[in-house]
Write the structure tokens for this entry.
Amino acid sequence: MTSGQECQDVQGSGDDISSIEAKESYGTREDDSAQEGKSGDDSSENNSESSSESESDTEETDIRKSDEELEKNELLPLVESEANSQFRCEHVKTEHNQKEQVTPRRLSRGQFWLKLEAEGTYQCTVTGLIFDVTKAAVIKYSVLSWSKYADYVKKPWMVGGPIFDVSCDSASVLTSIQFPHSLSLNDHESGMTFKVLHIKSTGPAIEPSVDHSMTHVKWHVSSLSPVGPVIQTQEPVHYDGAVILYKVVNNHPSLSFRVYVATNNDSFIKDISKAVKYSDKKFIKIDKPPVCQKRLQDGKRYRLISEPEAEITPEEIEFVDGSLLKLKSYIEVYMEQPMEFTLSLIELESEEIVWKAKLREYLKLKVPKHQEKTAVILVARTEAGNIGKCDWILHDQNKNEQKRNTISNRRRKSSNSLFGEEFYNKRLKGSDISDGTKAKTTLTDQQLMTLAKKMGKDWKEIAIECLKLEMKDIHQIQAKEEEVNVYKFMMLSKWREGELSNGTAQNLYDSLKDHVSYEIIQILEGFLEQT
């Protein structure tokens, strides 16, 4: 491997680089030491600003305010805490075995929190960041958007992976950070230069990396503030790709999707999630394996096809890394009639399949009142067996019409009663029913398994943050070698056990409604309707 400093000496001698690299001589060690003494305070301010990219609706006002303040400062030297970033090295086996996997706690506004108990090398299971510390430390960090720093990434430099903001309670304890990159190197790394863009209090600077591997770029911490890997190369760039699906939620029987073809880059993916969230339309994310089977190449053309045929716009795209763009491009897929279908992304030059997924829906019918007793067993078996295999739930249109008529009648009957109006409002919100049945009926094992199958990889964070389980509970659950859905089921069962008679659909709905997918909310609402 070639060290970052050697790359700087060799590559920098003949390159005509941007004004950013002109700042590559980013100050003396004395300057960094002076800044390091106050990095704890500075990084707290920076975390408050940079973590404004959170997905939390309750803090949307703060998010927009912070975004506006950052945009005003983009043309000025950034007054933020100093930070450093590292690329993850390809360790020798002894070093690799000493790396401990740690799961962070999720804080508000998109921040992660880790308490490291002793000296060592630790890898975050959520973001892939690797931290080297000399003693116990508390580290906070968050994923940022590259689009905010687009003005500082000038050719020939390109984004190499997600950008993070990191702070530590004792800056000198955190010696290096390894940043995950989204590049598919193989035989194409010989002509690549790896460095990091460091947004310091004195302005942006390109700083050398220490090392790089097939997955990470390592950087020695000089100060704590936003840092992300950047690359320079004359060769075609290959990326680890991801395909992300969102379905439009409406009352129409037709199907409409957004398909994003992206680099497997947390910053890029977070930008997509944020764009969908603030869209005029309502979406649910379709949980399909996103990682491409074949690497994506910058400048190559790809086609999305559907079987059976659907309307796809545009039919072909030229792939580029859109990390620096505020508006992320996507492909729209439309089917007039709902049905099971398969999407495939094809590389035009080789005609090879890059990514493929089969999409299924589940038609949820309204059981007539007079058939509820005879149908309850059939419904339970159908939902337990089929919901776990579908990608979204299509509610029967007759159900919506019946529900509107029922609500209309109920409103007329209760128009002269204050109690009746309050009952109607509560029913609309799904918060209670008058006879208290929801509050008394605990969830069954079948219902918990249905929910477990629809939970994503963040189930451990949900367990700790929403269901008040402890990390020792997670360790006990994972002590046995089981399939991941069984772990999720055991987690929900542990919650139900702790709630005693209050392990109900209503209680679980109230705990999860602001933290899980729309699809899980739909399933819980279905359980509430059955009680």
The mean pLDDT is 74. The chain is about 35% helix and 25% strand. Residues 407 and 428 are 9 Å apart (CA to CA). The two ends are 63 Å apart (CA to CA).
